[in-house]
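Reading a protein record of the kind used here takes only a little practice. Think of the row as the fold of the chain written in a discrete alphabet. A record is reproduced here so that you can trace the correspondence yourselves:
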Amino acid sequence: MQARGSREQEARDYLEEHRIMELLNYLTSTLLFFRPEKPREYLISVLERLRIAKMTGLAFPFFMDHSNIVSMFEMMDTSNKGTISFVQYREALKTLGLLTADEVLKDDGHAVTLDKFRREVNKRMEEIWAAF
């Protein structure tokens, strides 16, 4: 029984070290966000663009561009205040696959602006792809 527990822990450690679950969550989220006609081909092209960027040293290929981030923010900002709540912010990051299940965000009591939302989405996407 000990060997099984050890193998499971090794598997968890491997997935965590290489941030595989974050990558899969992100890929799933972008797939659902864009809903391409041919999902398998879309996922292959995303991974291929990432591989090329990594091999050539080109910039990280953002799949959520500025207009996508703005659209998502505006859907949450229904009153057009220019801010969203912390709960909306946290749920958006989860929806995008950019927040792990065990990660705890600290609520500073301030509403989240579009600029903060955009910076955080971009930063988290870069972290996931850098680990890949």
About this structure: The longest strand covers residues 83-84. The helical segments are 2-17, 20-34, 39-56, 66-76, 86-95, 114-131. DSSP finds six helices and two strands in the chain. Residues 3-56 form a domain with the cAMP-dependent Protein Kinase, Chain A fold (CATH 1.20.890).
